[in-house]
Structure formats: C-alpha cells, structure tokens
Amino acid sequence: MDGEHTALENGLLDNGLSGSLGSDFDDDFAPFIYEPDPTLPENRYLDRELSWLAFNQRVLELAEDPLLPVLERANFLAIFASNLDEFFMVRVAGLKRRIATGLAVPTNVGRAPQDVLADISLKAHELQVRHAKAYRELVLPALEAAGITVSSWDELDEADKVQMREVFSQQIFPVLMPLAVDPAHPFPYISGLSLNLSVRVRNSRTGKEQFARLKVPQMLPRFVRIDQREGLGQVRFLRLEDLIANHLGDLFPGMEILDHHVFRVTRNEDVEIDEDETENLIQALERELLRRRFGPPIRLEVTDDMDDVTLGLLVRELDVTEQEVYRLPAPLDLGGLFDLSRIDRPDLHYPNHVPTTAPQLMPSEPNAKPDIFAAVARQDILLHHPYESFATSVQAFVEQAAADPHVLAIKQTLYRTSGDSPIVEALIDAAEAGKQVLALVEIKARFDEQNNISWARKLEKAGVHVVYGLVGLKTHCKLALVIREEKGVLKHYSHIGTGNYNPKTSRIYEDLGLLTADDQVGKDLTRLFNELSGYAIEKKFKRLLVAPLHLRKGLLKRIDTEAANAAAGRPSGIRIKLNSIVDEAIIDALYRASQAGVPVELWVRGICGLVPGREGLSENIRVRSVLGRYLEHSRVFSFVNDSDPQVYIGSADMMHRNLDRRVEALVRLTAPEHLAELDRLFDLAFDERTAAWVLAEDGVWTRHHLDENGAPLTDLQTKLQQQATQRPRSARTGTRR
C-alpha cells in the first residue's frame, strides 16, 4: 500500500500522495523453482490473494472504527477503494493473462487458477458491499454529525437547485462529451477507472430508443460545494455524477430521458517488456505505457439498480464475464473520498505531528548550521521516519554533499521520488558543480514509469550519469554513497534505507535508515554500484546481503542457525518485520525453526502466506499486523544467534520478486544501541497491551484494540511519536563495534 495517482492516490505505492496504507504491488509470478520439504504437511500455506484481500479488510476496519477521526475514516475508505483497483489492475489481470495464454500460474495452496479467481471474485464482492455499507451507514452519518453533509439532488430545496444549475451550466456543461451509440457511432472506448453514466433516451418523433455514454470528467472535483444555507461550521456537497444526472435534458435536448445508471471499468494495466529483445529500454517502455490505456477490461462495476438491457449491452460490448460484473450500491468509486478527506478541519483529523530532528544531527550550538558529515563520522546514526525528520537527515545529507567542495562523488538509487524532489535538485546541483554524480533510476517502477523517465532525462541534461540498472531486474534497494576527501584521504559516507528517497512519502511512511561512515559499508556500496552501472560481478559483501544472488541464501542460513541453536539448548529467536511474506523456502525454514523450538515473531503489514500456531508445525510462531496513521514500511530481520545478535534492515520483502527479480540490499547493524532500539520496537509491537491484528491458524485476522473494559489499547504509532518528542538530545548514539 509507491505511485502517483490521479488513478492511485492512496499511498498504496510509494507515491507521496494522500494515503497512508498500501500494498506495494507487483506481478509476482516468478520462475523460482523450490523443491518442497517432504517432511512438512502439504496444506501449510495461506492463499496469497485472499491474504491480500484480508489486508484490505483491515484497512476497511479502520474506516469502520468510530474511535478514529471521521475525516481519517473517509480517507481509509478511499484507500480501500484505490488499493482494490490496483489489485485488479495488476494481480487479477496477471492471473487472467496467464490463464488465457496457457502460461503456468504457480499457486502455493495447490488449487486451480480458475478456483482462485472465483474465490477472489466472491471475497472482493463481499468486501465492496461492506465498503459501501460502511460509507452509507457509518461514515456519512458521522460526517453529517460533524457538520459535513453529502446531499442528494432530491434533498436540495429550490434555492440550492437554482445555485447548482448555475454551477452546472457555467463550470460543468462545457466540459461534458455525450457519446451516442448507433450505426454511425460505434460503442466508445471506456477508459480504465473512469466514472461513467449510461443513458437510455427515446426520440420523441420516431419513438426509437438509443444508448449514450457520458464520462464524468476526472479533472473536476468529485464533490461539488453547495453554498446555500450553510451555517457556521456547516458545509454541504453534492456528488458530481448526481449533479450531471439531473441535467441530462440539457445534454440531449428534444430526447426523452428513459433511464440512467453509473458504471465503471477496471482494465489490465500491467506492462510487459522483453528487456533481452529491446535495444532502447526507455523507448520500449514508453510504447508499452501507451498500450496500457487499452488493456482488456477485467472488472465492470455497476450500480445495483441498473436494468438488464443496459447491463447486457455493457457486458457484450466490453466482453466481460458474469464473474467480472460487480453490482454495488451507489455511489461507485469511493476513491473520490480523498477530496473530502482533505477538508481543513483539524478537529476531524489525526493531531498534527511535527517530526523531530535526530538528536545526533542537532547542531551543538543554538542557531548553528548542522554538519551531517561530522555527526556521521562520530557514530552510526539509525533514523526512524516519520517520527524523525527526513528533511533534516537524509535530504540534508544529500544537499550538504552537493554543496560541499570536499565531496568528489555522489552515487544514489532512485526508485520513486516526487517530481519536485529536493533530492533530484541536489543531484543536479552537484553535477553542475563538477562533481561525479551517478543516479541509478528504476524506470520500471510500476505506475511511476512516466514520471521516472521525465526526471531521468532532466538529470541527464544536467550532466548526471544516469543508468537504468540490470537487464531483467528491478533495482529496488535504497542506497546513497558519498565520497569525500578529508586530509588527503577518501572517506565513504553511506545511507541505506528501507524506503524511497521521497520527501512526501517520508511524512506518512514508516521507514528506517542507517547513516554511517563505516569504511566496510562504503566499500560494499562501491562494489555494488559498480555492478549496477557496469559489468562487474561482485560475489561477496561484508556488511550487506544482496539479492538476487545471496539474500535468500543468507537469510536461510541464519534461520537454520537459529534452529540448530535451539536444538542444542542455546539462546535462539527470530524477529522479522516486513510488508509481505509468501516465499515458500523462507516460510518452510521458519516452520522448521519453530519445530526446533525457536520463538518466531513476524510483524507483517500485508500478505502472509505462513500459517501460525499450528500444533507440530508452527506453534512457536506469532504473527501480528499494525495498520494506522502511517504506512508500516520498514523491513527488519533480527536473529538472536546464541546471544550475538545479527540484525539487518533493508528494502526486501520475502516474495519471489524481491528475492529473485530485484536488486535488494540489507545492511547489518552493529551498534549495540541500535540493536537494543529495534528490540524495544518489537517488544512494543508484540505487547498484549498494544493494539494490533493477530493472525490465527485458519487465516483469519482478528483486531485487538480494546481492553476487557472497552478502553483503547496502546497505539504503537502514537507511542513512538511521544517517545521521539521526549527523547533527550544525547540519546541513541551509535558507536560502531
């Protein structure tokens, strides 16, 4: 739950827009061949797709929670809708494409792909009906109680209607484009995710009935402000499609309006490129982006009052199956609630939180300018966003490097960042100042491809060396390396993070990052960047675990070590925090560790294919999920290792795509203070007094957020905000060991 939406403004991807939850989606059909462990039971995995839908159900449960501020609840409704849109555009589309072309569809639960699609359709329809009910029966009344009303046309008095007719004629009518369907006008192309009105009209002279399609303009506000009779603290809106539907006579003069309904189409928006067969990746990608608009329909949403004649026409012309039709209560596309969620009512939002500056980066004297390099040279610094400021740490690190005359080179990966990013501007400034600057831009970042192409070209024009990674792999790791001359010696300053170099998402995504001057880390990053930009093949790193060659092997080795330690009676334990876990090899290793007696704690935001708490298999494994104001995005891998802890942070989830088809990097933390801090983070997350969802053996997530007296349990994110604010300036030094 990264990119950019007019279509996907949800935080689902690392996009810097308004949402706070997401799925970080990708088509995860990998050619990974895993030999199943015959000692483990066959039915040991939870269904990946249903687990994702369960994640989105948890988002919906936040929207249903009366204890949350009502505009945040509206935002969660919008996030749920946008999350589901991308689930269909990418994951369901990928399943359908592979079935249609006869390609293998690996499923870790041993079921036929058609059965998987049927279960998806059933569960998704159930959730969308629940979603609509939450809007009508829970959030709308709560909004109205707070002075924010969404009215229907029939609820307006005559003065309101006069005003709305004026708004329609001056601001909406000129933009509309009704499209007739007849022998001279073929059925029009319906763009993906657009909201449309189907209109049946009758010619008053001939009596002939005809069909027309009217697209609701996406560039206009979804909720139109009504100004009449608004009192202090009161604001009213009318849905745009409702306003248009009640002025259809203006669009079809002389015709009798028989009926109208709202519908919406979701299309396959996956992009496929054979990188081995193309000479110019950017040109090939731009061609595919044009084709994306015309992907086949994979979901048709219609209002539940649509007549059979109109529905039959849409089904026939769009060539969709009955399973792909979703009859839902109006209104469709509750992603439009993003507009309402931005209303400036601080009392109806989460309390404002201003990130603090990491104590080690604070200047020693008031009003003095901080020196990032001096601070990092003294000790490793572990950053925790958004509790600690991205702007005064990572952004300041890159900006100071760009301006520092002693800096000779900057190397950085860029997966997703905002178009006006100060990070990009700093790299441009550095290149224009004559520094060597390398930017590894991942132009295949889903739904961000065009943005990345645009600012990659901007970087190239400024003299930055721009490369696009390795053929067949996405570069997903989050790395920055600065080479600085100090007293005739070259010194490495490094940043390795779990999140993108995006100042906007850094305010709503929870991430970790390490700033270090450790020479070994710097040498590791130098070798890795050489591999990514040239032809070097580096096989060994000292402080890093790197995919696709060594990450899975390295983690499996450490999991097996914990199992061996437990069997020998030595201290053992595994704690992992990530977005998703579906990789069979990793899951089976965790099962074997549990059978050996290793206590395993998994903190999973989204998809979990592992079954916890099953006797004889996973009774030592606990799985929790935390969702809330911020999107939990950091990845942590912690191993007790016979009381010599091995702890890593980085960019990788335990999915085939991350382990086999991406360049990912984890860095090992060494400062005892940092290891202790992450231990405290897990302690808080797994404390029974902390609110969370708990996964049971049957795959059902249960929310625990109230105590036996009905009082709210501790909110982890609020607690971390408080701790960051109260932390003394001298806290959290990171002495390297």
Automatic annotation (TrEMBL):
Taxonomic placement: Bacteria, Bacillati, Actinomycetota, Actinomycetes, Micrococcales
Protein name in the entry: Polyphosphate kinase
Keyword Phosphoprotein (UniProt): yes
Cofactor or coenzyme needed: Mg(2+)
Stretches with biased composition (Polar residues): 718-728
Enzyme class, broadest EC rank: transferase
Record: active site: 476
SUPFAM superfamilies in the cross-refs: Phospholipase D/nuclease, PHP14-like, PPK N-terminal domain-like
